[in-house]
Amino acid sequence: PCFPPCSRMKETSGWQQVFSSPRLDWVIERVALNAKVLGGSLGDHDKMVAVASCSEIILWALQADGNGSEIGVFVLGVPVEALFFVGNQLIATSHTGKIGVWNAVTKHWQIQDVVPINSYDAAGTFLLLGCNNGSIYYVDVQKFPLRMKDNDLLVTELYRDPSEDAVTALSVYLT
């Protein structure tokens, strides 16, 4: 059983606990924290924390007064191997080739199958995925684009290595 706490540091008084989740009956394997969501639908000062175990994810919104409210419980369907925020969107990935995106504006959880993922990075609002087929794919998670024909997340191929060597690392810097 776990109670993931969130604390903040104040110069005058040191560390203070600002949130502790309800009791969880599973081991937390991944944690993601979004310290400031500017202009999001949750308000300018809200913070979010997400935890994952196996394929299950729980997301909470934390208010300035220390209260927290559960936004949702999401299931990726495969083990979550990375959990992070890009802007105010929560991203979960698995090397099996699944990504899950929770959009803070639409309050929508979308799961998408892609090629098995070896690496990832975020640049601005873009999520980049390095895959084992030599391709780099991207998703603009701020726009949360969905294809009209099947309502799938629009995942666009940015680059494909001619020799199809796996993309094992990505590092992106935008000026």
TrEMBL record:
Coiled coil, from the record: none
Annotated signal sequence range: none
Gene3D superfamilies for the chain: YVTN repeat-like/Quinoprotein amine dehydrogenase
Tree of life domain: Eukaryota
Matches recorded under PANTHER family: SETA BINDING PROTEIN 1 (PTHR15859), SH3KBP1-BINDING PROTEIN 1 (PTHR15859:SF5)
GO biological process, one term: positive regulation of epidermal growth factor receptor signaling pathway
Name the UniProt record assigns to this protein: SHKB1 protein
